[in-house]
Structures are given as structure tokens and as C-alpha cells.
Automatic annotation (TrEMBL), chains A, B:
Functional note: Catalyzes the deamination of adenosine to inosine at the wobble position 34 of tRNA(Arg2).
CMP/dCMP-type deaminase domain location: 7-134
Named cofactor requirement(s): Zn(2+)
The organism of origin for this protein: Streptococcus saliviloxodontae
Protein name: tRNA-specific adenosine deaminase
InterPro entries: APOBEC/CMP_deaminase_Zn-bd (IPR016192), CMP_dCMP_dom (IPR002125), Cytidine_deaminase-like (IPR016193), tRNA_aden_deaminase (IPR028883)
Co-factor remark: Binds 1 zinc ion per subunit.
PROSITE patterns in alphabetical order: CYT_DCMP_DEAMINASES_1 (PS00903), CYT_DCMP_DEAMINASES_2 (PS51747)
Chain's gene name: tadA
Annotated keywords: Hydrolase, Metal-binding, tRNA processing, Zinc
The organism's place on the tree of life at top rank: Bacteria
Family listed: Belongs to the cytidine and deoxycytidylate deaminase family. ADAT2 subfamily.
MF terms (GO), sorted A to Z: tRNA-specific adenosine-34 deaminase activity
Keyword Cytoplasm recorded: no
Any coiled-coil regions, as ranges: none
């Protein structure tokens, strides 16, 4: 298990936040992830579900796929996954399947979280792989970019509604 | 929700079993999956973790990705996923994220199942998507191909051990 200093944790979570900003720029739910091994980033990912039209393309999945390709191995032993928001059920399952031993996430996800909130998949003793979990690194920044997205999303919906109304007036 | 006759269920599970045989032929854990919409298969998948070196590449994930591409949509509304073995935690999460409303699986997976055995993710009322689940279609065939794999795997391990022993004798 890698033993990161607080400074290193903040550094890698900032890299995950850079990934989240890629999603925000594309009007996607802004979650970002990096996977680190021996002090190097071996996989990066950001949520790209809408852009790629792939239901599974969460930040963690993209990062795991990239790290698998980097390593030429589906097992990501001795690595650490940094992600801005608590992994969902699917991603928690994927982290275990990829044999990642350590997860550090920013903010919790009370509605969908599979790593402590709704479920506790990463530490379930019935499963064949258990993960050390730490949370709270840059939690406010990680949550704040989500709030920005949902505010912008409401504005987009309002604008779309206004345009639809305008168009219906023209149609009369 | 599609209303399949018993004959149709057996037909599509047989197609999922054909996918499982692709995994068996490559010495992968033999699980297969098809996704059906309006009576047509829109996605097929088989477990290919070792071949592709991708931790996430379970049968359901491959089939969901293919169905997303076929439909040009990450939402697989009005579709049914047939899979030979009960989905794991990751795949159960992925099925919900893809908004698949119906899952029919063959045999249960007591050790890793996320759709009734260890967890009941597909019917969890706290999540924003619930799935109708049916099990038992061709259950014996679906379990039997798994047993074939594990028997062949033990034989491969035995043979590898024998060869290693032979080599160590040559080295002396």
C-alpha cells in the first residue's frame, strides 16, 4: 500500500480535478480520476457518458482501462485510485475486479455511493478483494465543481424551455 | 417490459451460451450475454478479461457497449439482457446505469452475485432504476459450462506444475 504525504494526496487529487474539468467543459457530470503507481500516473479518466454514448464510461472505468493498457495487465496491484467523488456501485465493483488495493476519494455521494454511502463494497469481507479507503481530500473543491454543473444544467434546461416556448409562439 | 414465451427465453439464452463458448475456447471464465430489443439482438458479449487485459471486460459490459453503439444511445430502454450467470456487483451496477429494465439469467453465482446472492442491486429501492429479474432459464447448461472450465483449468495447472518440475530436473 502506497503511503502518500498530505502534499502528494493533494497533488494527485488536483490531477483528478483537472480530469473532472474536462467533463464540465463538455456539459458532462464532472467527475475525474487518476490511478497512480510508483509515484506515476498510469491511467486518467473523466466521465464521458454523453459524449461517447456509453453507459459505463465513468471516470474510474476510463482510468482503469487506460491503466490496464499502460501496464499490459488487468491486475492493477500496488496502485492507488484517486477520484473526486465516491465511486458508484459499478465502479466500486470494477475497482475490486481490477485488484486495486487503495482508493482515495474527495467528496461522498449520498445518493449513489458504493464505497461507504449506500453500500460498502470495497471493504465487504465476503468479496475476494478488499480495498483501503480514505476520503475527504479536497472534498470541498470536488463537491463544488458538481454544484457548478448542476447549476449550469438548470440554466440550460431553463433556456431550452424558453426557446421551446418562443418556437411554439412562432408556430401559432 | 418485453413478454417472452418460454421458447423465446430458451432461444436467447442459447445465444448467450454460444457467447460463453467463445470464452471457453480462449480459456476464459465462460460467461455469455445478449441484449434483445424488439425481438432482435442489439448487443452480444463474452468474458474476455485475459485476452483483452481489461479488468472490466465481463460479458455484460461487452454486450452493453455493443448495444450502446448499435442504438447510438447510452440508454437501453425497452431492452432485455440475457446472461448465463448472475451478474456480479460491477455488472449489476452497469445494468442499472444503462437503464436496462429486464434481466434474465441462467445460474446463480453464490460467491460474487450482485443480483440476488450477495447483493440485490437490481431491485434496490434506494437506487434510481429498478430491474425486473428472472432466473433459472437453462440453468444447468449455464452452470455446466462453468464446471467444464474449472475442470480444464485444474488440468492446465497440473500440467504446468508437471512441466515446471521436469524443467527443474533438467536444470539440476
Amino acid at each position: 500500500m502506497a503511503d502518500f504525504s498530505q502534499e502528494e494526496k493533494v497533488y494527485f487529487m488536483t490531477e483528478a480535478l483537472k480530469e473532472a474539468h474536462k467533463s464540465l467543459d463538455k456539459a458532462e457530470i464532472p467527475i475525474g480520476c487518476v490511478i497512480v503507481k510508483d509515484g506515476q500516473i498510469i491511467g486518467r479518466g473523466h466521465n464521458a457518458r454523453e459524449e461517447l454514448n456509453q453507459a459505463i464510461m465513468h471516470a474510474e472505468i476510463m482510468a482503469i482501462n487506460e491503466a490496464n493498457a499502460t501496464e499490459g495487465n488487468w491486475r492493477l496491484l500496488d496502485s492507488t485510485l484517486f477520484v473526486t467523488i465516491e465511486p458508484c456501485v459499478m465502479c466500486s465493483g470494477a475497482i475490486g475486479l481490477a485488484r486495486i488495493p487503495q482508493v482515495i476519494y474527495g467528496a461522498t455521494n449520498a445518493k449513489f455511493g458504493g464505497a461507504g454511502s449506500l453500500y460498502d463494497i470495497l471493504t465487504d469481507e465476503r468479496l475476494n478483494h478488499r480495498v483501503e479507503v480514505e476520503t475527504g481530500i479536497l472534498a470541498e473543491d470536488c463537491a463544488s465543481i458538481m454544484q457548478t454543473f448542476f447549476r449550469q444544467n438548470r440554466e440550460r434546461q431553463k433556456e431550452a424551455k424558453r426557446l421551446a416556448k418562443e418556437n411554439s409562439e412562432f408556430a401559432n
